[in-house]
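Notebook entry, structure prediction.
Reason for the run: the old model in the group folder had no record of what sequence produced it. Starting over properly, with the input documented here first.
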Amino acid sequence: MIEARALDHVGIAVRSIESRRGFYERTLGARFAGIETVPEQKVRVAAFLVGAPGREVRIELLEPTSEDSPVARFLEKRGEGLHHLAFSTDRLSERLEALAAASVPLVDRKARGGAHGTRIAFLHPAASGGVLVELCEPGD
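New structure, fully documented this time:
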């Protein structure tokens, strides 16, 4: 069992952060929280906050930085749109071992570096009926 604490963020694949940023800020009223490049994932991540202070949900726009990026491959196959749901958890390495032992399909058997100093791992969409699920463990 993962024991997800909360929805951490919603990841949305885009070809260009700049071309989509206005919708989230002007139309939805989301608060821009910055852009970060995650070289390990070959992606730029623009974070936006929606909701009351202390109860925000983060929306992340994911822009590939390389043609061989997982997000670039996603865009090529499916186009722009919902990429993944991410849930906060703790003891990520232990959770992945338990999931593997329970034969839950995994993309990642080991945690890797993510945006905002997190450690992340993905469950295969086959595990959840077609939704890519990310597990996030806050960094130090």
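Summary: The mean pLDDT is 94.
The old model has been moved to the deprecated folder.
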